[in-house]
# Entry
Amino acid sequence: MTDSRIHELATMFGKDLRHEPARPFNSSIPLCDSTIPCQLSHTPLAAEPTADSLGSVLIFARDRYYQSPARVLRFLWGVSTSIPLQFEILRLMRFPAYADFLRTDPRFRFKFLIRDYLVRGLSTAQRTACFLHHYKRLHTSMSADLLHRTLYQKVTLLEVQRDDIHLGINLCFSRPFEKEGELSLNLHVDGAEVFILSFTIVPGWVVQSGAEEVLLISRLQGTNGFYPQIRAATKAMHNVGPAALLLATLHGFAKAFGIGSMAGVSAVRQSSYTEGLSPFYKSAYDDFFAEIGVPKDPSGFFLSSIPPEDRPMSSIKQGHKIRTREKRQFKHQVAEDVNILLRQELNVISQSETGKLPVING
# Structure
C-alpha cells in the first residue's frame, strides 16, 4: 500500500471502523520460552452432547443482539440443521486448549452460526466447514504450547528496532472482532496497534479454489489516528507498507504450515461492509489485491498462490527497479524468518509431515 493511499484512507474517515482502543505493546512473550510453562488444563474428555449444549445455546439470549425473535429463530434453525456437525465440534472441543476456551466463552463452539461469519454469503454448511477445518488444523499442526499461547496470549513473530522505531508483529486469536477471522496478525509501532490482518485456514472448495486448503484473508485494515507511525514504519521497512508487510508475514505462516494458496475477500463480501463506507472498503480490499496483482474470481474472492506472483521486472519503470528488488528481498526475508521461527523454535509441524487431517473419533 503506497504512502499516498494510506494518507487518503487516514483522512477519509474521522475514526477507525469497529476498532478497540489501542492496547499497550506486550513484548514479554519471548520467541522461545521454556521458563514460563503454559497453564494447560487437564480437563477430562467430555461425554457426548447433553443438556449442556442447550445451556450454551441459551447463553446467546443474554446478548441483546439475539433478543430479536427473527435472529433467535435463525440461530436455532442453524443449530437444528447442523446437529451431526455439532457432535463433531463437541468432540473437537475435548482437546485441552479448546476446553479451556469453552469454559471462558461457552458460545465459542456456535460462533460459525453468526450471520456473516468470516465473509458475507456463506451457507451454514460452508461456515461450519471453515470452523472445523481451521481448529482441526491448528490442533494437528501446532505444539500444545504454541496453540495455547496463540489462543490466550500473543506470539511475537517479528520484532525490529530501527531508526528509533520499535516495530512488532504478533500472532493471536482475533479479538474483539472474531467473526471477521479466527487468527490475526497485528502490527504494533512504538506500542500502538496500527494495522490488522485477520485470516482463517479454510477448505479450498468454500472459496471455489482448486487447492485443498487456503488462507482466507477476511480483514485487512488500519487504526485511524496513527498515520505518522505508519509512515515512519513504512520508511524504516524499506518502503514496504503495513498491508504488504503483514502479507509477507502471512506468507511465512503459510510456508510453515505447508499452505500454498490464499483467498482475499472482496469489499462487498467483507462481513462488516456498508454502502456508506464503500470507498474505504474498496480501497482497503479490492484496490489492494489488484495492486499486488491478485485476480478476482467471479465468486467474489481474490484467489492466488501465496505469495502472489511478482510482476516481471521488465514491467517496472526505470529508476524503480533497484527499490523494487530491495522491497521484494526484504519481504522474502520476513517470510523466511517467520517460517523458520514457527517451524524450528515453536515446533509447527506441516501437514506434509503429519498426513491428512485426523478424524476426531468419539
